[in-house]
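Human: I would love a firmer grasp of how sequence relates to backbone shape in proteins. Could you go through the record with me and say what the backbone is doing? Here is the record:
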Amino acid sequence: MAIRHSFEPNAGYRFFKGNVSVLLHAAARFKRDAVVTNIDLFNFFRHLNRYLQNVGAYEFERQGPSKLMTADNFLTLEGAVFYKFMSDSTLSHFMNGSFQLGSISYYRSIEQQNSKDAMEGLANIAFQAPGNVFGLSLASGYNFGIFCGAQNLDRCAEMSERFGPRIIRIANLQSFAEEIKILFGANRFYYGHVIYNDLKLLRAKTLKTIRLSQEPSTNFDPALINDALFDLLYKTSFHPSLFMKPTRFAIEDELRLVFEMPVDVPPPYVLRKANVDLMKHIDIIR
């Protein structure tokens, strides 16, 4: 399947494989065989994020201290209980069997400021390959539907004020997700805790050779993105793009359920389906 690309002013190159895209903001290679510390990476991505904000790639977000995460920080959940705070009108839609999944594009521009996150989908990744360390800033996850909730009721008052006074509980999240997957025609689903990290930093290792620029170094050539590299970026960016958020959202203690769709979510960037039988998974606790 051929890789297509287009250039987006103030954003970068968007690469398509079929109808799924990854937006590459920037790519850099550190000096070959250099020892690159976590502090080096933090400083590099902090300056890169500030630049991307200044050119309008996304809205301003604070650049506080951020730990460098790896895939091992994202744990698989067993027996998770899911809570969701909502308004009376949203609960009414649920009771009528109407369900909605958001997307990264939706949450980047949503009018409700408590939910708006300009960094949805962003991932800052340090790839360590044989002899090289690459720094990439990209956005992915455009083909995922997102269902957000909380993993406990520890901050019930604050969450009710932010999102609404009504609360539902889904005790068997696995069974609920299986039915949502079928209803929306998703390829797969995944649920996990959100990690709060201002720079959304992930360090990954690969034994594959990564080429991101000509030799000697010249302007970035989008033709160097091939199927194998697209798949590597898509796979590695999954956790930081979808399960990392800035620390200002930490009060939410979010448990997130995501569904991989075969195509990017189109405007208006939400997915809606109706199935009143889904209410069998839901308890209305307030």
